[in-house]
Amino acid sequence: MRPHVRQKFVVGNWKMHTTTVEAQQLARGVVDGLAAADHVTVILCPPFPYLALVGDSAFTGEVSPTMLRDLGCEYVILGHSERRHKLGESEQFINRKVVCALAAGLDVILCVGETLEQRESKQTEAVLDRQLSTGIAGVSGDDLSHLSIAYEPVWAIGNDEHHATPKQAHDAHLLIRRKLSEICGETWAHKMTIQYGGSVEPKNAAAFLGQPGIDGVLIGGASLKADEFLAITKAAASEIRAEMQLA
Asked: Which domains does the chain have, with CATH numbers?
């Protein structure tokens, strides 16, 4: 792949869903259907009790990074909106988790995003600025290659009344990359993966993935059905092939 074309990421966040049998079947269904996913990094994030089980098929919560590495995990999602707003994790606490996870050898997906109230009061830029500045404070240059950002507009997650448009997602990604440039420098800001997470489904995946600067998607509900997850993965593969042809 040409150096200035960023690889696409498709991340399935299962949260507190699936049983033992369902987790194994879902993971196997995804793995069996991934043949066409060239140049797309596919990541599954199952519930903690099923990590080892899913790891056997495919290679969140209260657990140490050392334990995750021992189970063969490579990625961890931190700063998820549910952890921020339901469990009260502060920016400083999330930062400590980011630094700790990176030190343990895990790749970190750091979630950022504003609530509906913050967006309507035109605080989006300030919120993203604060979450990024604090969230990656103290991260060394060597560790930046193991860090990616997921923009999650809290107001658009599982909300039938409010949906983010591809343009709104694109604009937020521009803000994030501009802020990363201020924090990390333009070179790292250009290299860093920024994903979108906000009710992504097969029917809208291409519209989001086709936006300049959106490097992947963090998927919730649609990741619980192998066929829907694979359809999104194929959309990502199609977009990266188109970008490579234009590069």
From this structure: 23-246 (3.20.20.70)
